[in-house]
Prior knowledge:
The structure holds two protein chains of two kinds.
Chain A: E1 4-7, E2 10-13, E3 19-25, E4 32-38, E5 45-51, E6 57-58, E7 67-73, E8 76-81, E9 90-97, E10 106-107, E11 111-115
Parallel strand pairs in A: 2-11
Antiparallel strand pairs in A: 1-3, 3-8, 4-5, 4-9, 5-6, 7-8, 9-10, 9-11
Chain B: E1 9-13, E2 18-23, E3 32-38, E4 45-50, E5 55-56, E6 61-64, E7 70-75, E8 84-91, E9 106-111
Parallel strand pairs in B: 1-9
Antiparallel strand pairs in B: 2-7, 3-4, 3-8, 5-6, 6-7, 8-9
Amino acid sequence: GAVVSQHPSRVICKSGTSVKIECRSLDFQATTMFWYRQFPKQSLMLMATSNEGSKATYEQGVEKDKFLINHASLTLSTLTVTSAHPEDSSFYICSARGIGTYNEQFFGPGTRLTVL
Amino acid sequence: DAKTTQPTSMDCAEGRAANLPCNHSTISGNEYVYWYRQIHSQGPQYIIHGLKNNETNEMASLIITEDRKSSTLILPHATLRDTAVYYCIVRAPMEYGNKLVFGAGTILRVKS
């Protein structure tokens, strides 16, 4: 149990375009989802936290207009990187938390974004 | 959340026990110690967590000192597939809405 998927696993896009990354909890309802970013040889950095049906809470220094997060259902959250630039190239990882037995953070496999 | 201190890297021979230390001297009474690991280019994988008693599961054992200021993760028989970055995280209970904040972790290299 507690499987979290991400799609796509890898994406390459041109500078200036927008990219959407999906995060799904496959076998539990995720009341809270977290988005992390990881640059090469660095640790995971929390970008934002979202509760289902509510606006996301962004960590300090993360631009909410650039990283749009939608958590419209209990099994799906999306992260849209708008007007992507090469410095946005990174490994994006989502994490989902439910209730009861699933009241822990379960991580997805990550999405590698490369902006040319 | 309390900060943790871990060695930057460690080596371990295949088949031997890997003992990964973590210091968390400012831990509060209701904060848990969590361990995750991250294999290259994958998402973090949960290993184990504990509050004050030692814990064991199919992956590892967690030894927490009596004063709770430090802990050790033990992989009893390390394999090459255990090569990863291991993160020790101290966090308040989930019902307080706290999230996992990752530090630098320890790079464990298991060698044949």
